[in-house]
UniProtKB/TrEMBL annotation:
GO molecular function: hydrolase activity, acting on carbon-nitrogen (but not peptide) bonds
Entry keyword set: Hydrolase
Record keyword Ubl conjugation present: no
Signal peptide residue numbers: none
Species, as recorded: Saccharothrix texasensis
Lineage, opening ranks: Bacteria, Bacillati, Actinomycetota, Actinomycetes, Pseudonocardiales
Protein name: Imidazolonepropionase-like amidohydrolase
Domain Amidohydrolase-related, chain residue ranges per copy: 41-342
Amino acid sequence: MVIRIRGRALPHGEHVDLYADGDRWTTDPVQNADLVAEGWLLPGLVDAHTHPGAAAAGDPLDHAVLRDHLRQHVDAGVTVIRAPGLAGEPPPWFGVDPDTPRAWHAGPWLAQHGQFIDGWGRRADHAELPALAAAQAARTGWAKVIGDWSSDGEPVPLDVLSAVVRAVHAVGGRVAVHTQQTAGGEVAVLAGADSVEHGMSLDPDLLTRMAEQGTALTPTLSVMARSVPEVRGRPDGPGRTWFLRGAQAHGSLVAAAAEAGVRVLAGTDSMPHGGIVEEVRALAGAGMRPHDALAAASWDARAYLGLPGLEPGAPADAVVYAEDPRSDLDQLAHPIAVILRGLPVRVTRR
Ligand SMILES: [Zn+2]
């Protein structure tokens, strides 16, 4: 059975009538195709920062948990994920099985000794970081470096992170850098990281440079905002002050980043999985235009990962809504259909 979708395709809103020829969209009509949905079409949602497969921080990768998390993403309309850090080597079906999203991943987080979450990631000397990162990126296209950790962990030095970026680019890969400190954020940008993850407390003066050199920002805004009440309840201390100051400034940083032309990517940092819609709301709530907040979680994030949108020859992913989600973000919580690799994985018949 060949499936067909039609309606108005974002980002431009033009009318399209698409048939899935296996995992490729085509406009060539196919007789007796099954029209599974009509409405407003997106080329699927993207969660650009999620760590599926572990029940809790520090836990090993569990294949059943992994599948469960991936299904939660698909239920939310996510057809592509990027996992900047995984708790273990993913199974061969990861990113491939019909009802799980396409996936990019960076293998284990690479961190300095004494930093990051116990049980997760790989610790490395500065001297071995570039080669380790390049070897990972050669395998999966991405390496993830913990550029700084917590309120007081020393950031990876600029010369080391610059060497990491050079080594990874030399094998055709990209580097994602976790940073939540002003100093670490500056190192990530000056080193030419491909994406800054979180970017809490980032100096807004660096946004122009990020836009110019193509460094994306994945602000993980919703998870950070969710942590505020809990952190506020902690006893006074430098860690509490650091987090609250950074988290409270984060929304305006995101708005300024979008304004400066920085590519913003929607990422949930996972818990609960399938929370991408909440991140889109948070981005819009911070002041991004709904069109841009949606781009960050769909067509623009796909383009960043090398996937075209709803056009002939593109991979056959789509999520369909009854109304234009840009004028009503609540639409995002109620997709009519989720199409993945040319197959209707979730459909609400009306
Ligand atoms: Zn993360």
